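WARN retry 2 of 3 for item q-0093 after timeout on previous attempt; input resubmitted unchanged.
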Amino acid sequence: MSLDGLDAIARPYTKEWYEALKRTLGEVGCRQLGLYAIPDDWMLSVVIPVYNEERTLRVLIDRVRSVPIRKELVLVEDCSKDGTRKVLQQLEEEYAANPDPMNAISVTYHDVNKGKGAAVRTGFSKARGDVILIQDADLEYNPAEYPRLLRPIVEGNADVVYGSRFLGDQEHRVLYYWHSLGNTVLTTVSNCLTNLNLTDMETCYKVFTRQALADIWPTLKQNRFGIEPELTAKIARRKLRVFELSISYHGRTYKEGKHIGWKDGLQALWCIVRYWWAD
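OK item q-0093 returned
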């Protein structure tokens, strides 16, 4: 049964659901457990850049759709070389036959491979939600954590939320030391120039209010992974309210399909300096 067909009190994050829990647990108990209400007319846009993710894409989309929040999945297919495009075309056909008002889906296809940054920029231009979140198409990041990331924005405390892999209280697959060191160096240099105190500048999970992103996305230029430091520098320059929350991370190996390499690290370092210097 579609989530839209459930009784409102049974659907998580509705006002009725929250009030019922608050009567049982109290306001303090709900706050400690991260339970809150999302306005009924509110929508989340999940921007998903996709490149060569035939193996994981269907599972990822199912996980995103299972999050009990009204949303749209904004998928941008970046001219994959495997069967990713066929998976997305099947998905479009399935949605056309059985629309789900809790999970709208749109797909944009790039005619040539442009890179993650270009796909994210395309996704931003298509997003219609009140809040926009970036989601990779692999299984490294867990969509079940959306409610935790959204809470500072829904409660009016933040304009932007970063999900940090390095705050330490969530499960984290142990992989490459040099990747971890590289992330630390890039985040530290970025913090020195932006005067932010982030622990994970390179994280995929960046969440924006529509108002915060409206002034940023038309100025974005990076086509590859340089989009991360570019976004961070432009967020800092606009003095937006930034929150950071811990997330779990199930990193993958290069054999499993990881795309980023050492050249992207050098490009990110250049972007940190470039976008500190000028917008």
